[in-house]
Structures are given as C-alpha cells and as structure tokens.
Amino acid sequence: MQDKRYIICGNASAKGISDDPKRDLRLRLSGKDGQGNITLRIEDIHSKMVRSVPTQFHDLLEIATYVYSADQAIKRGADDVDNFGDGWRRDLHFVVPVRNLEFWRSANVLATLRSTLGFLSDDNYQFDFVQMDQDHTIQEYLEFNDTQQLFGRPEQVVMFSGGLDSLGGAIEEILTQKRRVVLVTHKSTPKLNNRHRNMETLLAAKAGDNAPHHISVRVHKTKGLNHEYTQRSRSFLYMSIGATIAKMLGLKSVRFYENGVISLNLPVCAQVAGGRATRTTHPKVMKGFQEIISLVAGEPFTIENPFIWKTKADVVEVITKAGCADLIAHSMTCTHTWEMTNQHTHCGGCSQCIDRRFAVVAAKADQYDPADHYKVDVFTQSRNKGDDKIMAAAYLERANQVKSLTDVTQFISSYAEVSRVFRYLEGSTAQAAQRVFDLYKRHATEVTGALDELVSRNITAIRERTLPGDCLLRTVYESGSVISVPAVASAEKMPDNIFRKRGNVWEARFQGRGRHPILIQGVDKGAEYINLLLAHPGRETSVFEVVCGSEIGIIESAANTGLDHDDIEEGYQVSVGVPLGDAGVVADRKAIQQYRARYNDLVSEREDAEADGDHERLEEIQIEMAQLVAAVTGAQGKGGKLRKVADRRKNVRDAFRNAVDRAIKQIDKYDKPLAQHLKDSIKHGNEAVYRPEIAVTWEVRPIVNG
C-alpha cells in the first residue's frame, strides 16, 4: 500500500493534520459559476423537481464528488498494476467539511462508507469530517431545462451509461414494462456527447408518448487532476446523484442495469483481477450503497440490479425482442474511451469489448454490431499487444473450464473468490451458489458456441491461412483447443522468482537463474502449501487454513485439496463435540453440506472483520474455521468417503510440516539456493508464515494446461 495521502476538501484547514503538506491534494468544489478546481453540474433538471432536499443529500453529493476526483488525481504507484505491487492500493485520508457533522461522524456511517468504498476501488479510506463554515445551496449545482416535459409522475430513476446493458435496462423499463422513467447519465468525456444525444433521440422515437426524461451529470476538473484511468469510485458518485434525483422526485429506489457475469466479478484472468475489474454493481457494493442511502435518507431505500441473473447475450435478446436491434450499434461499451474515434468507437481488445463481441454473436445479433466499428476485430485480426492476447485467450479459457464443470461444488472449488457474493444474494447460500453456477454455465455455453459459430463461418480462411497467424480464430483452431493461454504466456518475459503450478506439475525459479524453471514432481501437497505462503509474505496464517489449499478448497473438495486424513499423524486433539472412539459415522452427507455452507459464511465474515479491523472477531472466526476443517477432514477419508471416528486423532501440524519438508527436500536436488531460502524463510507451528530477510516478489499464479 502507498503512503498515506491527505485530500483536504473545500475550505477545511490542513493545520495539524498532514505530516507532509507538499503531498496534500487540495480540492475545492463549486457549482456551474464557481471558481473551484472541480465543477459539478447536474443538467436538464426540471424546475418542478426541485423540492426541499435534506442537507445530508447535499453533503453526500459533495463527498462523492471529492472521492471521485481524488480517485483520478492520485495515481496508483505501480505502472505494472497487473502484478499488484504495494503501489496498487492507495491510502486516502479525506478531510471534508459537512453540514451535518454528528451524522457523518457516527460510527455506522463511517464504517459503511469505508467498507463499501474500500471494496469498490481496492483502496483504504479514512474520513475526517469537520463542520462547514460557509454553506451554499444545492441549486448551485443544478442547471434547469423546462423544455423537457415530465409526462406524468416518474416511477423510477434508472442509471443510463449508454452501454449495452444500460440500453437493455432502459428498453425493458420504457418499452416492455411501459414505466415512466428518468434516465441519469454521467458524461465523463465530451467525446461521448454526440453519441449520448443520438441515443436519447432514438430512444425517444421508439418510446413515443412514454419518452423518458434525461438528466445529465458532468464533473469538470482542472487539467492537473487527471492522472489515474481506473476510476473505480465513479459509481459512488453516479449512485449518489441518482439517489438525490430520486429524492427530489419522492422516489425511494434507483436501478442499475448490468449483466450478472460482470456484476459478480469472477475475474476472467489476472489482467482484470481485484480493483481493476469493475465492481460497480457487485452485490456487496450494491448492499453497501443501499445502506449508505438509507442512512442518508433516514428511511429504507433500494438500490437494485434487475439484470443480475442475465448474461450479456440475454440482454442483447431483450433489446432485439423489443424491436430495438438497430440501437445496438449506437451503444458504447468500450472502457478505453481515450482510443475512440469517429470511425472506431470501440478498441476491440479490452475485456468489455471482448464480452460484447461474444454476446452479440451468441444472441445472433452481430449483424447489428458492425465489426468495422472496432479498432481491432478480436476474432480475425492480429492482436499486437501482449495484454490483448492474454485477455482474449484467458476469456475463452475460463469459459472452457466452467463449461467442463459438472456441479456447483466443483465450480466453487475452482473459483473460490465467487463465494464472497453468496451472502449478498437472495435465498439461502446453497440456492445462491446454484444460481451463480447456472449463470456462469450458461455464459460459458454462449461463449464457446459463439466461437464455434465464427470458426465455422471462417473455416476456409483459417484453412487457407489468409487470416493472421495470431488472430484468435487461427490460434484456437490450430491448437485444437479453446485453451490458448500457454502459447501466449511463453512469449512473456520470465519473472526472476517463480513458484507456480503449470498444468499438473510445479515449476520454480529463484533469483533469475537458468533459462528454464525447474520442475517439481511427487510433492504436490507440500508445493501447494509453499505456493500459498509465498503469495502472502509476512502474513501469519493458521495451519488449518493453509491445509485448505485455497480458502474453502478442503471444505468443497476434501479429496483433492486437503491433507489425506490417513497421512495426518497422531496427536490431533481438537474436539467439535464428536465422542472419541468408534462411534460410527462421524457426519452424514447433510452434516458435511452444513459444514461447507457455514465455512463459506465464515470466509465472508472474515473479510468484513479484516476490513473493519475487528481483531477479536477475527480470532473467533479463525477458531471456528479450524474446528470446521477438523470436523470435515475427520469425517471424510480418501476419495471423500465417510469415515468413522478413530480412538486417536492425527496431527495436522505435523502433516503440514512433513509435506513442506518433503517438497523442500525434492527442490534441493535441483536448486540448492532455493531450497535453503525456503528452509530459512518458512516458519510453522500453530501459525505458518513466509518471512524472508530480504523481500522477494514471487509469480505464483497458475498456468492452466501449460
């Protein structure tokens, strides 16, 4: 994490706050006629909408604008953010003047703000609210336009970005459901102005008498405040404005429309992991937004995503079935807006462009999305940048992997990070898990089906090799598989320090020695434990968690990722209420399923406790997790078979130590310096930790089928 940066907002004093005033960022917000370095303008407000808006909403608008502006002004420290160095996460400390000091300083408000924004942008947030001494009215941020008519009382505020998903949502609301809506658009760049106006005109023509009211939002900053392109906090500003407009209209909800595959944020590959992958409508963020607005409003308020269970291809079908297929070409999905030209409205290589191309093909609507609108055709043209090649290949790889999974247990074992969303979805954990699995399975089928369709269309050009050799279709066809990541990865510069799984073997390289990594075989469990420790240097972790392999791996698939119970040596004495001695089957299938569900809940609870700094709760969670691991590993034998209680328990710690020692001994045969480094740097008892004397950066991400 970077060193703390102070953002001093408005006329707040920095005296006695900052240790290094030269690093402070001063932000002053003004309305359309002000002199600040940030200007907030909410355009096309109808005079009938303006009513008494609680001052908490006024404060919220300003806080959100400051957060959004600081997000762009303070660059993430590492240029190579794919490696997630310390510079990726920023430590941002805001000093903000507010009208309702007691409200914003309350523990509940502060905790909800920090937790939601921290997850949204992958940064650490601190807020020091101070009393505002120079108040001004909300009208300073409003530009009125009564030429737009409010046809009856609006029923819903809908956030409208102009992308495919938000277009599908607007069409669903206006044409399918016949609802009267207000569309709120954040216009982040003047490049999109004409396209937004064109989209508004086309929608109005389709809607006739039910034409929506449009409200545009702009945030202008001085040139010196544009340094960071990721802008992950944008949706906080977007949501705050939408909620304020809803309050003006006497409404109690705001709707975002985004397909569930994007919302749930299961990364397609390392290039879009963590904060780089959009979390705009992630269920945890949506819940956090809803809690914030409910607190600000003083009453229940709803933030919804009605498309949470749709794929992007499903969204395209919503558009085409409503007779609006001609609007697809006018929508804007690309995240690289700086590359946009009149000829090429999409780059073709970013994750959003790739997802869009596959979706329109899967929905049989690609005739409405011309390939020449893309700077690069992801299917048939050469992909020059290494990142673009990896992105497209990894997108296909994930689809191929998910399609091969047969049940939800395999899905969670393969993508443990998806478990974080279950508690924020409706229904039980088991029901949510099944729905998420079904969604991703459907998406995987759409992606692979779209690829098969395009290979079929271009088979002559593929066979005659008139397409570029590194285009996606030829790469896939000539490899005989959708899996094309290894061919790309081999061209990358090899990191100096590697400890990762490639296919079914482990490979290692230390301090840049040798042209090729050494291969480690026969010690899979020990290598897996070492890999997990190297991924989190300096972090002391319960041996029980390390044994799990990856968070819930042992719980979801004990036969594959944990210690084989028969390998655990004598002496393990943790009891979970099961009597010693041969008392029959330890736990039936239903009990094991309950253990798994509880473990998933604990993983999410632990994330929240870590974010809140609640060390007492963390300790309680770790103890319960260890007990659950003991219960399941004690209940299942090799192959996942139910086993009976033995008179003596086995010792997990000894088995962990033995597995690691065996792996290091094997490594010593091929790379003595690496073996000695691991022996010196890995400590284990109740807690295991990798703590080298000198910091070492390791590449630990697996190469699938390499």
UniProtKB/TrEMBL annotation:
Q: Recorded E.C. number(s)?
A: 6.3.4.20
- Which domain of life, per UniProt? Bacteria
Q: Does the keyword Ligase apply?
A: yes
Q: Which GO terms describe its molecular function?
A: ligase activity
**Protein name from the UniProt record:** 7-cyano-7-deazaguanine synthase
Gene3D superfamilies in UniProt: HUPs
InterPro entries, per the entry: QueC, Rossmann-like_a/b/a_fold
Q: What class of enzyme is it?
A: ligase
Q: Which UniProt keywords apply?
A: Ligase, Queuosine biosynthesis
Species assigned in the record? Hydrogenophaga defluvii
Quote any Pfam family the record assigns.
QueC
